[in-house]
Amino acid sequence: MRKLQGEGDQFTVEGHRPVMTMKLPQIARRTLRATLVLTTFSLGACALEDEGIDDAFGEVGGDASDETMFRAPGSFPGIANETQLCTGTIHDGSGAMRYCRNRSIYSNNSNVTRAIILIHGSGSNAKTQYYDPTIAEALSEGVDLTKTDIIAPQFFYPESDDPTDQLIYDDWEASNYMLWENDWRWGGEASTHSRSTFDMVDHIIEELMDHRPNLEDIVVAGQSAGGQFVARYSLVTEVSTPGVDVRYWVANPSTYLWHDPSRPGPTANCSNFDDYPLGLDDLADNYPYMVGKSATTISHNAITRDIYWTVGEFDMGGVTTNCRYTAQGVDRHERWENHRQNINDVCNDLGYGAWFCFWHTARHIEIPGVGHSYVPSLQTDEGREILFD
Fold first, then answer.
1. Quick check: helix, strand or coil at residue 205?
2. Is 312 left (phi over 0), alpha (psi -120 to 50) or beta?
3. pTM of structure
């Protein structure tokens, strides 16, 4: 028997697993919660700590020094020089990747109560477009960075023959680095190691749980292709975080994971439109991380987990002739609107009730006055509230 309880702006749904407490919006529909913020920043304001070693895993050596060629994700001009690169090294026992951080995830720290994990977009770099500006915004908002981890993993493509795509970056042999193709944004496995991009964020969270005894909150946030990443990861991760609240921000993705075969656009001549990563069919065919995942559980997670889906008011991009994309809508803004309806339909179909599902639609937030750009989206009241509150 489902029961809805409420007091003030808190509502709890019982009779489903897991039980969820939803916080209702305090600044109307547009002003709920989200997760990243950007401006310009000089890294000198926040010195990096020395690297730590965690048994067989962990950060190895110092910052990047030896030269190895890698390619930034996407087809845009990538990372031009070493000053734009993250210098921390994640090693999970399988392979290595780079990440930006204001302290090592492998070092014990009892002061930290919040961790923010930023997932970059396609053709973007984790440091200058995500990590540095988020540090700057945190400082401008008076956030105590001795109590807040800001972490930005950096996913790389394999080596490119085009020198304009390449970057110089490494303190490990190339064979140790994990490199991903375009499917990194959906949890694809590295072409060099049997590790999903989702595995790597699980690893970051596991290390935080091991080394931050007073951790209270984790925020996982992504923009554009990073938004596609968080849109899926938030629904399928099973990483354990007892006593720690985890929030997800899905910002301006080009596509979403649909929860039933219905689509607002035509699908008659579009094969595989409902296969993962766009739907719940054939979840594990090309994505080993998805083995054993339940479509029903994934849909419940969309309702019960602390997820916010945002779009810029003027984000009308993402127009394509790919029928799997256009089945969700003609552009990013329309797909966001249609996804809101799909989540509302799923919420009601799963039996959460009309009143609860009505309030749940407030987790889809249109950020006024901005487009697809990351900086203005994240310097809004909505962005600050979800990132730091």
1. helix
2. beta
3. 0.82
Residues paired with residue 96 on neighbouring β-strands, in sequence order: 91, 177
Q: What is the pLDDT of residues 249-273, one digit of tens each?
A: 999 999 999 999 999 999 999 999 9
List of residues 6+ apart from 15 with CB closer than 8 A: 1, 2, 3
pLDDT digits (tens, 9 = 90+) for 303-312: 999 999 999 9
Residue 47: Cβ-neighbour burial (10 angstroms; 0-12, 13-18, 19+)? exposed
Distance from C-alpha of 24 to C-alpha of 6, rounded to nearest angstrom: 10
Separation CA 46–CA 39 (nearest Å): 15
The two three-digit tokens of residue 74, written as one number: 């996407």
Q: How far is CA 353 from the centre of its chain?
A: 28
| Token duo for residue 367 | 């950020």
Cα separation, 49 vs 302, in Å, equals 37
Nearest-angstrom CA–CA distance, 28 and 5? 21
Nearest-angstrom CA–CA distance, 126 and 133? 10
Cβ atoms 250, 227 nearer than 8 A:
yes
**Could you tell me which of 189, 167, 19 has the C-alpha nearest to residue 95?**
189
> How far, CA to CA in Å, does 245 sit from each of 209, 216, 305, 344?
12, 6, 10, 23
Task: Give the domain ranges of the chain.
Answer: 3-388
Q: Residue type for 170, please? A: D
**Dist. CA 149–CA 215, nearest whole Å:** 10
Q: How close are the terminal C-alpha atoms of the chain, in Å?
A: 33
Instruction: Write down the H helix ranges in the chain.
Output: 132-140, 197-211, 225-236, 295-304, 323-326, 332-349, 354-360, 374-378, 381-388
pLDDT classification of 82: cutoffs 50, 70, 90: low
- CA dist 54 and 209 (Å) reads 13
Instruction: Provide, rounded to the nearest whole percent, the portion of the chain with pLDDT above 90.
Output: 59
DSSP alpha helix (H) spans, 18-123: none
Q: What is the pLDDT of residues 90-114, one digit of tens each?
A: 988 888 888 999 999 999 999 999 9
Looking at residue 130, the DSSP 8-state letter turns out to be: I
Third-level CATH fold of 3-388: Rossmann fold (3.40.50)
The C-alpha atoms of residue 133 and residue 349 are separated, in whole angstroms, by 41
Unique residue bearing structure tokens 């008011």: 313
